[in-house]
Automatic annotation (TrEMBL):
The keyword Methyltransferase applies. This is Class I SAM-dependent RNA methyltransferase. Belongs to the class I-like SAM-binding methyltransferase superfamily. RNA M5U methyltransferase family. It comes from Bradyrhizobium archetypum. GO terms for molecular function: 4 iron, 4 sulfur cluster binding; rRNA (uridine-C5-)-methyltransferase activity. GO terms for biological process: rRNA base methylation. Keywords: 4Fe-4S, Iron, Iron-sulfur, Metal-binding, Methyltransferase, S-adenosyl-L-methionine, Transferase.
Length: 415
């Protein structure tokens, strides 16, 4: 492989890298844009079809200056160098292309931006580097190295102080000699931190962490989901409900993302009387859908189900909500159980909901609303539903993870 080479970038691929077409196939160059002529060098790891961008010789007119000083080194964002309009068209096209490749013919609405105020949840990594220096930050692009950070401009202002809090919490814990993953969630009552990786905590250490919690606006600190200290319960508002977050439960990455997905789901469910909300999490759909419809919600995370049930019983003006802990991969709702519902909403993790889609395909449920964060598993599951007699009435792509190649979508299917 030549030390440096000149490449012409054809387009941006579905991971956000520039793609050059050469005689030997495709070559992927992170941070390059379609139409650009670039100078490239070997990529770290010397992967045969990857290169490192050394210099942009002819820049695309759509190239813009990234706004974050860590961009290009930190692995958090793949795209800050591309104008909003082509970026948005590319993101919508990711959905259009995946559907076409799967042979699914349906309308795809314009992309809905759902970055809103920014990310409300981050995971930072803490490691001891050379000369015993503590590093707290994100993983570097394409490696496990940690890029220490002191700011991240894509965060919701509700996370102000979160990075400082992570450094402060990491300092006493890293002395135990284990790498740490520090998940921080912005709640209405302060920062909720769950640390993974440290050993058991001594009383002296908990006293020190309590001081840090007071100094850094922490609502709660947990270790592997076990309570270390709570100054005030970490609460978020969902519709008219107040939900106390269980440690480590899933939460949509941005408030705008949650509201957009829930608004689209509510629109598709507006005539529903009885809804099954599958993969419900702490209830961002159930607690809003129950304004009009009876809801039964299922998720394998018992903590999330408990939080949803508690919020449902303490919120007035909602139709009945029942919530049940159930593993829907191993024990999907069967066609006989699905008879209780005129509408099913499902929002699985990235693996999708193949087992549940198979049972839905054999059911008579008139309306299915599919929410997905992975277009590949969505198309797989949608094909199962289509083969079972459903037709897709429309798909809306949602951009909650701006600056990344991730895209969400909401689809309505009818039989
Ligand atoms: C993408 S999240 C959606 C949660 C919720 N709808 C929301 O918007 O916050 C996927 C959810 O699936 C749940 N989950 C993961 N595996 C599961 C399984 N095998 N059975 C049931 N639920 C599962 C997770 O606990 C998580 O709450």
């Amino acid at each position: 492989m030549a030390e440096t080479e000149r490449l012409v970038i054809d387009h941006v691929g579905h991971h956000g890298d520039g793609v050059a077409i050469s005689g030997g196939g495709k070559i992927y160059v992170p941070y390059a844009l379609g139409g650009e002529t670039i100078e490239a060098g070997p990529a770290p790891g010397h992967h045969p079809d990857r290169r490192r961008l050394l210099k942009v010789e002819t820049a695309s007119p759509a190239r813009i200056a990234p706004f974050c000083p860590h961009f290009g080194v930190c692995g958090g964002c793949a795209i800050q160098h591309w104008d909003a309009e082509p970026y948005r068209a590319w993101k919508r096209e990711l959905v259009v292309t995946a559907l076409a490749q799967a042979g699914i013919d349906c309308d795809v609405a314009p992309l809905v931006d759902a970055h809103g105020a920014g990310r409300r949840r981050i995971t930072l990594h803490a490691r001891v580097g050379t000369h015993d220096v503590l590093k707290v930050g994100y993983a570097a692009a394409g490696s496990h190295n940690i890029i220490p950070i002191d700011r991240c401009p894509i965060l919701d202002p509700q996370l102000n102080g979160a990075i400082e809090a992570a450094w402060a919490v990491a300092e006493p814990l890293i002395a135990m000699g284990k790498p740490l993953d520090i998940q921080i969630t912005a709640t209405d009552s302060g920062l909720d931190i769950d640390v993974r990786g440290s050993g058991p905590l001594s009383t002296a250490l908990i006293t020190r962490l309590s001081r840090i919690a007071g100094q850094h606006r922490l609502a709660r600190l947990t270790r592997h989901g076990e309570l270390v200290l709570m100054r005030t319960p970490p609460v978020i508002s969902i519709g008219t409900a107040q939900v106390v977050l269980p440690p480590g439960s899933f939460l949509q990455a941005t408030v705008a993302g949650e509201e957009t997905l829930a608004a689209l789901a509510s629109e598709h469910c507006k005539r529903a009387k009885s809804i099954a909300d599958l993969f419900c999490g702490v209830g961002p759909f159930a607690l809003r859908l129950a304004a009009k419809s009876r809801v039964t919600a299922f998720d394998s995370d018992a903590g999330a189900v408990g939080a949803l049930q508690k919020a449902a019983t303490t919120t007035s003006g909602l139709k009945p909500i029942k919530a049940e802990a159930r593993d829907l991969f191993r024990r999907p709702l069967m066609p006989q159980e699905l008879r209780d519902y005129d509408t099913v909403v499902f929002d699985p993790p990235r693996q999708g909901a193949q087992a549940q889609a198979t049972q839905l395909a054999a059911s008579k449920v008139p309306t299915v609303v599919a929410v997905s964060c992975n277009v590949a598993t969505f198309t797989r599951d949608a094909k199962i539903l289509i083969d079972g007699g459903y037709r897709i009435e429309g798909i809306t792509p949602v951009d909650q993870f701006r600056h990344t190649p991730h895209v969400e979508l909401v689809a309505r299917l009818k039989r």
